[in-house]
Every structure is written in C-alpha cells, then in structure tokens.
Predict the structure of GmrSD restriction endonucleases N-terminal domain-containing protein.
Amino acid sequence: MAQYVVNNHSVENIISWIKQGTVAIPEMQRPFVWDSTKVRDLIDSLYKGYPVGYIIIWKNPDVKLKDGSMSSGKQVVIDGQQRITALTAAIAGFEVIDQEYKKKRIKIAFDPIHEKFEVLNPAIEKDSKYINDISEVFKIGFDSFNFAFEYANANGVNPSEINKTITKLTTIEANTIGVIELNSTLDIETVTDIFIRINSKGTVLSQADFAMSKISSNEKYGGDIIRKTIDYFCHLKQRPMDIEMIKQHDIEFSGLQEFSNIQWIASNMEDIYMPDYNDVLRVAFTSQFKRGRLSELVSLLSGRDFETRDYKEEIAQDSYNKLHDGVMKFVNKTNFERFIMIVKSTGIIDKSMIRSDNVLNFGYALYIFLKDKKVDANTIEKVVRKWMVLSILTGRYSGSPESIFDYDIKRFDINDPLDYLKSVELGELSDAYWNHILPTRLNTSVASSPFFKLYLMAQVKSNDRGFLSTDITVQTMIEDRGDIHHLFPKKYLQNNGFKNRADYNQIANYVYTQQEINLKIKDTAPNVYMKEVTNQIETKKPLLGGIVEQKELDRTFKENCIPTEFVDYDVNDYSDFLEKRRQLMAKKIKDYYFVL
C-alpha cells in the first residue's frame, strides 16, 4: 500500500474543505503568525500561476462505531496551516486571530489597472484604483461586467480590459495546489520521516505537534476544548496580561468551566516551571495512561486497539476523556502550586538551577499519578523530591525521555513507590557513584553543569552562607543574581601560567561570595588573602568579610566545601585543591540527597 498520494486540488476545493469541516486546521483557533504582507504575496503568486508549495494532510483511520458501522473522521492538516488560513482569510473573508487574541480581517486590495496586490490601509482605501477587499470579488452573485463598467467610468479606463483582469483574478480559485495525503495506517515515526523528507523548509514537527493536531480535529469528544485549555494555560503563563483579551474575544470558551479552572495562572508569578504544550501533553499522558510514548497517544486518540490492530470509537472516546482529565489535573491550581512547593523544597529556588524540562515533567506526572493512587501526602513529597534529584544525578531523562518515562511510570504502577525508589537508588547510586563517578562529573568548567547546580541546591537546602560571609546566604545571593567568584582568582591563575579557560574556570574553583569580599581579594593567592582573615581573627578587626572567630572560619570552610589546608595554598597547590574540593562537593551532594 502506498504511504501517501499526491494530488492537485483547486483553491476553491481546499477552501470548501475548511467550510464543510472535512479537513481540520489546528491553527485556525490560534494566533495567526504570518505578516499580512505574506498573505498578499501568496495571493500574488497564485494570480501569476507560480507554485506555492505542498499542503500535507494526514487521514484519520476508519473507526468502528458502536453499532458496527464504519466512520472516517476529519483529515488533519499537518503542514500548510498558515497558507490555508491565509487563503480563507483573503478569498473567503474569514477572520483570523491576532497575537492579542482579537479576531480581525486581513483585507487584500487589488489594483486591476496595474495588476498589483497590497494589504489594505487607509491610503489605499481612499484610492479609487483599488478594489479594497478581493473577497468581495469571490462572493456568489458578484457581477464582474457591471463592476468593470462602473470601475472604468470612475478611473477613465477601458471596461473590457478591466473585465478581463477581474476574470483572471477570479481564476485564482481554479488554480491548483499540491496536496500530499498521508495514509491513515502510518505511525508517527513514518509520518515524521516523510514530513522531513518532503518539507522544503526542513521544519521538524515533534510528536507533540502531531498529537495537538489530532486533538484539535476532534470536536465530537471535546478535543477542541482540550486544545484551547492547553494553549491558553501555556499562553497565560507567559503573557498573563492577555487574559482580558481572551475573555473579550473568545466569549464561548471563556464561559466554560475549563477556562474558569485556568484563570488563576495569570496571577501566578512563579517562573521555575514554565510549561509549553509539549510539557502539558507529556504530563497528562504519562500520569493518566501510564505510558510514555506520545506516538501511542495519537494512536489511542484515533481509537487504536493495540491487540486487534483495528480502530474503535469507544477507545477514542475513552482516550479523549482520560486526556481531558489529565489536562485538568495538570492545570489544577492546588496540584500545580503543591508541585512547585516540592520542587523548591529540593533547593531549586530559581529557574537557572534546573535546565531539564524532562525532570520537571516526570516529577509532576509522578506527583499527579501518586495522588490519584491515594498515596499519603508525606510519601508523595518524599518520593517526588528524591526522584527528581536522582534523575538529575544520573541524567535519567537526558536525550529522548520517552522510553524511560514509559518504563518508570509502569514500575511505579506495579510497585510500592518507596520500594521502587529504593531499588533504583541501590542500582544507580552505589558507593562507586559517590566516590568516583560524581567527583569525575564535577571535573568540568561548564558553570551550567547540572552537577554544579546540584551542589548549589545542597547549599540552599542546608541554608549555607557564602564564602567568608557571616550572614548572607547562598540562597540570597542566587535570588539576587549574585556573582560566582573564583577561590583561586582568575587573574592570579592566568599570571601564573593557567591560560586555558577550562583550567581556571573549573567549577571546583567556583564559590558564591559577596562582591565586596571578592573585590578585596583581587588577584592574590589564597595563602595571601587568607592570611588577612586569620589576622583579623586574632585582632578582632574585620577587613575581609566579617569573620572574627575561628569557629566561623571553620564553618565557612565546611559549608563551602573548602579543604582546611586552603589557608596555605598557592598556585602550586591548585590541582591538589581541585581534587580535594571535588571530593568534598560530592560528599555534600550525597549527604543532601539522603536527607531529602
């Protein structure tokens, strides 16, 4: 069986598909991202007979209804949404939704004398040479002969020539566009591969993109509502100021319970977790379906029976109901805020401290899943907190997370959550990991390293103070965007032969300290500036930081994982210092993990 067929369809046919609802355009209810001039250029290309690219449609499989009959759902446009939206806007007069969620018309004007298209503006509107809105020409009953006669009188031109031009304009509807129809039996992986190979822009669609297209095409089971709930929630998290616009311009949706349930996010200023539609889908799917592969979500929404390999309406209906429940649990104010509270309780108090969306996504899916299973709140908090940190420690969800998402959620389903956590700890976090693997991973100059972030999380969790600080905590400096400084000053190392950034910018040489302390240290050796500190302990006169007691110096060394010999170190001890500090940092991270 052919994987796809290519046919040419007239513009008129394509527009009729949208009007009749036989083809779904997921983007029709979302902000139109094309500039109006691109709409003008598309119409101009069609007028001149130029090619305008292909549209790619994915057929829905035939679904067996409860009475045994077969039904085929809408076909879904997976590439070409913007072009089709532009055509329906310019030719059929459809409204589009702008970036502020206002509905508006894009009017393309046409000068039949010079055969020129322009986006309508006030100046053109006053120019008698222009037809202000070409959609008027395509309306049923438009009288081109009388129009040409009146236009010619107003502009002093030959009416027959104008009539010819108007006739040429109306033939735009007869022009054809290539439509690639992908077979309904294709899986997402194959669809993705075909899409990449035939898409001239080289655009890559994610499985979440396909899933969102599938969701929005099904109004029977509320897919369009699910899609809007996801879109608006994510949009309001980024742009809370748009909430009144949405209320005004999507009155129908804003009257639904789904909108009522997401309004709170517009006043939530927390930015540690800023989910997009991909994140919402993954969490909802994993928590409710106990699966990790979004390709399976698309199949289930189509009604796929994995055992018989045919498609059934009851499976599609159940899948939409489950997905709706999962999305509503994701956007639930209590769930979201309690999950963020758990995230913060790990020591993640700033978005810069966690770069893995996958860790947060599985953490939230696990939270919702365990809550659904009626696990007690204290156990949920402990399991979710430790699981997220374990995932960062081991890079569990780096790269493609789907298979391990699938594996983990199934294991959490059939095991006691604490037992499964313990079994993974025993396998992944052995003594060899803490004593050798983790110190090796701390041997890097990348400040964004997740292992350095783990060290900072441990410091936050312990309420540690900055290096040589008596009161200012590491947490305060992170929250106030404080600076990370070098224990062996960068200039000092450079002056003594360490010219390579990878050497002097080792994360084991990094420490949070107050800027005024760093300025006083300048580019001196540790044994020089630490001599000042030991002197002020004797004199009780603080000059470099506020430490005037030996116990305070011991504390700042311990909290910042600095070996006691540091007071005597110079450039010759740098390599030894890095090795010892990595071991101390690894031990701090280990102690932190086991008290979570």
User: Anything to note?
Assistant: The two ends are 56 Å apart (CA to CA). Residues 207-429 form one domain. The longest strand covers residues 4-10.
